[in-house]
Amino acid sequence: MTLMPLPDRDGSPAFPRCLAELLELCRVHLPARTAAAYDQMGEACDSERDQRVVLRRALGYLDRDYPDLPEPFFGALVHAAVHDPDPSLNRQFVEPLRAAFGARRTQEALLEILTTGTNPERAGAARAWYWATLEPLDDLQDRWNRAALREFVANDDLDVRRCVLPGLSLDPAGYPAELKPLVAEAVHLARTHSDDYLRHRVELQVADPEL
User: Fold this and answer.
1) From CA 150, how far away is CA 186, in angstroms rounded?
2) Is 102 left (phi over 0), alpha (psi -120 to 50) or beta?
3) Is 87 inside any structural domain?
């Protein structure tokens, strides 16, 4: 069965503000890198695409030369990663975040947003989690699995469910006894949902738990 991509979503109105905040932080704290990034562009960088490229270069994403970043970057990078509507491009914010502030702090921030944020933020945290866990931490992964399972079952927001499901473990053996019934409920919910993506994705994950 061919893997169906995560459906597109409307852009977050907060995302342009996130980019602007990061660009200003880069100008203040990484002036040489930022000036060089703008010079390489060779023209005004007004579009979102151009701003992404400048940030990739200034933050070291393109060559994996990540600079040390002061504290104001932490919240700005978390917000950009969460509000980025693209589940692939958000990596450009997660990797500098993880490199500068550590995998644990990065994952703890996303876990907090999954459980306390708005629905768009919760969906964004789930999209960013994949890149944040390239350095796996078992205790945080367990906490995420439990929170994500509860979120998938209890939260009927479609985008939250679509974004949570790909990273959701559906193996009952990975959960404590009190949560095992929720695994069966999550599978049933996805299989009987009106959304094509949820129905498609759950069958892949049940067939291949490592997906």
Assistant:
1) 9
2) left
3) yes
141-180 burial by CB neighbour count: b if 16+ within 10 A, else e?
Answer: bebbbbbbbebbbebeebbbbbbbbbbbbbeeebbeeeee
Classify residue 163: in a domain, yes or no: yes
CATH number at 107 reads 1.25.10
Contact yes or no for 66/59 (Cβ under 8 A) = yes
Q: How far is CA 169 from the centre of its chain?
A: 17
Report phi then psi at 207, rounded to 5: -70, -35
Residue 71 lies in a domain: yes
Residue 8 lies in a domain: no
**Using CA atoms, how far apart are residues 96 and 73, in angstroms rounded to an integer?**
10
Cα dihedral 114→120→121→123 (10° resolution): 50
| pLDDT score of 44 more than 70 | no
Count the domains in the chain.
1
How confident is the model over 72-99, as pLDDT tens digits?
A: 999 999 999 999 999 999 999 999 999 9
